[in-house]
């Protein structure tokens, strides 16, 4: 059960209590991942689409220091429109809380808060993972270690292609985090439907995904399950184009000495500008698909 330090909206808490479908959504995607004004449209459209599906959206973030599960439309609007907001991973939660900050929560912090509120399914765009050059920089997202001890299902389109995908998949294995492909064993590459890497298992329906969640819980395992949902091939960025863009993005990040948690927003922004906004369309498309599938899994899970 959540502590009083976490605010859970009435809509979300009653849905959880009554066994109605709820889907968690993160806020870093609209505070740091997407540019204005599109960020707000995407966040509100995700919520509206879920409500049409009969699923309660639980958008999660930190509002004036209060970690909140089920931000209101007004709160989402504020967070999406405020400059200099904190990017809040799990380690930042007590700080943001004590200092009364606004914060966009990453996958790590969102998964933690969702789980504390009893929300079992969570959709995002791309997960954090092992950064390229991590052997020297040690830059590995805290998403990994938090997912290793948070029993939730996370739907993404893979890890962002700016990362070292092979190393990230190895870390998932070490951390005992299962990775399922949705109707494919080709692991998606966020902007592209196939990263070139394979996963061991595919599931073919929301119901089968819910079976895996139930089996994990019956076994008493505590790690997240990852469901990888590729963007449709006709909506992806041309794969040959992506390689060249990534080279330029990394070179520029190195040249400007960008590091730490600023790297992900920097690279995403670079790619958006470099593609004249086309990567943004793909990013939004990816997110839409993950939210829709998340709603279906949340519904299948409560139907049993
Ligand atoms: N994927 C996106 N946009 C984002 C992120 C992922 O397309 O903004 C965010 C997620 O919130 C993820 C975070 O948890 O980036 C990882 O950041 P870091 O590598 O600093 O842990
Ligand atoms: Mn990092």
Short description, anyone?
With 304 residues, the protein is of the alpha/beta class. The protein is built from 13 helices and 13 strands.
Describe the structure.
α5 (93-99) links the parallel β5 (86-88) and β6. This protein is of the alpha/beta class and 304 residues long. The chain has a single domain (7-231, 280-302), classed as 3-Layer(aba) Sandwich (Indigoidine synthase fold). The chain contains 13 helices and 13 strands. Strands 1, 2, 3, 4, 5, 6, 7, 8, 9, 12 and 13 form an eleven-stranded mixed beta sheet that branches. A two-stranded antiparallel ribbon has the order 10-11. Manganese (II) ion binds at residues 139, 141, 261.
CATH architect. name? 3-Layer(aba) Sandwich
Output the CATH topology. Answer: Indigoidine synthase fold
Mean pLDDT: 96
Number of separate structural domains: 1
Order of secondary-structure elements: EHEHHEEHEHEHEHHEHEEEEHEHHH
Quick one: CATH superfamily?
A: Indigoidine synthase domain
> CATH class, anyone?
Alpha Beta
Beta-strand percentage range: 15-25%
Class from helix and strand fractions: alpha/beta
Rounded to an integer in angstroms, the radius of gyration calculated over CA atoms is: 18 Å
């Amino acid at each position: 059960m959540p502590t009083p330090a976490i605010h859970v909206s009435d809509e979300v808490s009653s849905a959880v209590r009554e066994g109605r479908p709820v889907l968690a959504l993160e806020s870093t995607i609209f505070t740091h991942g997407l540019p204005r004004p599109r960020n707000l449209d995407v966040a509100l459209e995700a919520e509206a689409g879920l409500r049409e599906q009969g699923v309660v959206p639980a958008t999660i973030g930190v509002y004036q220091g209060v970690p909140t599960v089920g931000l209101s439309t007004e709160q989402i609007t504020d967070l999406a429109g405020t400059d200099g907001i904190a990017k809040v991973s799990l380690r930042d939660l007590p700080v943001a809380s004590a200092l009364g900050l606004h914060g966009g929560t990453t996958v790590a912090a969102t998964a933690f808060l969702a789980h504390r509120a009893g929300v079992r399914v969570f959709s995002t765009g791309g997960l954090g993972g092992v950064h390229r050059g991590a052997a020297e920089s040690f830059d590995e997202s805290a998403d990994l270690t938090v997912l290793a001890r948070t029993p939730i299902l996370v739907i993404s389109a893979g890890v962002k292609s700016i990362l070292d995908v092979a190393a990230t998949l190895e870390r998932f294995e070490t951390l005992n985090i299962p990775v399922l492909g949705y109707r494919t064993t080709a692991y998606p590459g966020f902007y592209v439907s196939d990263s070139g890497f394979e996963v061991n298992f595919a599931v073919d329906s929301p119901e089968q995904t819910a079976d895996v969640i139930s089996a994990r819980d019956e076994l008493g395992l505590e790690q997240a399950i990852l469901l990888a949902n590729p963007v449709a091939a006709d909506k992806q960025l041309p794969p040959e184009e992506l390689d060249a863009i990534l080279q330029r993005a990394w070179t520029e990040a190195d040249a400007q000495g960008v590091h730490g948690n600023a790297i992900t927003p920097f690279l995403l922004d670079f790619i958006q500008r470099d593609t004249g906004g086309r990567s943004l369309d793909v990013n939004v498309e990816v997110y839409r698909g993950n939210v829709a599938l998340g709603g279906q899994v949340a519904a299948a899970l409560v139907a049993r």
